[in-house]
Amino acid sequence: MSKAFSVHPRYIQEVNLAWRHKSDGRDRELAEKLGLSLDTVDFFLKGQLVNGLNFVEICQTLDLEWRIIAGLEPHKTQISLPVVGVSEEEGTSHSKLDSKSSTVDHTLNGLVAALCEMLSRLTRKAGNLLRADRTSIFLLDRDRQELGSLIAEDGKGGSLTIDMPADRGIASLAATSLKSINIPFDVYDDPRSDMAKIVDNRTGYRTYTILAWPLLNEKKDLVAVAQFINKLKPNYNAKDILFMRIDPFGFTPEDEALFTKFVPSIIQILERCQFCYQLAQKLRENGVIHSGGSVFPEAELIAQLKRQEQHLRKSLERI
């Protein structure tokens, strides 16, 4: 099987959840078990093309039907209606519709890939700035007024997708209060740490210090929340256990001042990411985008997706 496949946009969230559940926070170990690089897994999770054999192997490991995930077959719960007496003209019409759908899906894949790449770069840049062991950026879904699932650094040179409940967690508290939250060593002693304990118990990780920072635009509207976990010592030994690498002083006022200066350089990019994220979410859920009660024409929709991808990739060149 030399052909390459990509995850259909409709199933990107599903495969990311399946991977997260299977890897249990140990992405590199699972990738090595499959004999794959983290880059290959990353491409798969972002909906980019990967080698057919690798695609099938990952899907089988995640207990997913690869033909469905690739969009080659309808989902098992989908009802297929028999087509009776289809003329040649009608058959051609159906082919055109399938072709249009495929074009939209392909274009959406490109936008999602650019969005994930942008968020990965911003996440790593912010994390390196404050010397955080793990960093996440959660975008606000304005329509739902919820924090959406975003790319987060896994602390092992890879990335993962995290679902942030809208009503729990330090990041959500920062989002609702529009104020930064800085919890020093040890986070577990703080009464707000329940969600951190639950996540740590599931992943096997340990949160010691945390800084959650709401990112606001010029109008003071919330765009995203940056969350930094476990401030590292300046000259830590990478071979040491996590506890030995942690800076017991946590994130300092100097760190906060440094990040305050950094935010203006990324806020407009994050606003574009936020728009693209919502655009992709609407397409995944509805298959169409409505504007003023009417549906975008297919050609206009594709043009819109391509424009947004181009804008994101131009921004990538500056990061």
Overview of the structural elements:
This protein has 319 residues and is of the alpha+beta class. Among the domains are: 4-69, 434 Repressor (Amino-terminal Domain) (Orthogonal Bundle), CATH 1.10.260; 131-263, 2-Layer Sandwich (Beta-Lactamase). 50% of the residues lie in helices and 15% in strands. It contains twelve helices and eleven strands. The chain has helices spanning 12-23, 27-34, 38-46, 52-61, 66-69, 88-130, 170-177, 194-203, 242-245, 253-262, 267-286, 298-317, and strands spanning 4-5, 50-51, 132-141, 146-147, 150-153, 159-162, 181-183, 210-216, 222-231, 290-291, 294-295. α1 (12-23) crosses α2 (27-34) and α11 (267-286) runs antiparallel to α12 (298-317). It is globular, with a radius of gyration of 21 Å.
Q: What is this entry, summarized?
A:
The protein has 12 helices and 11 strands.
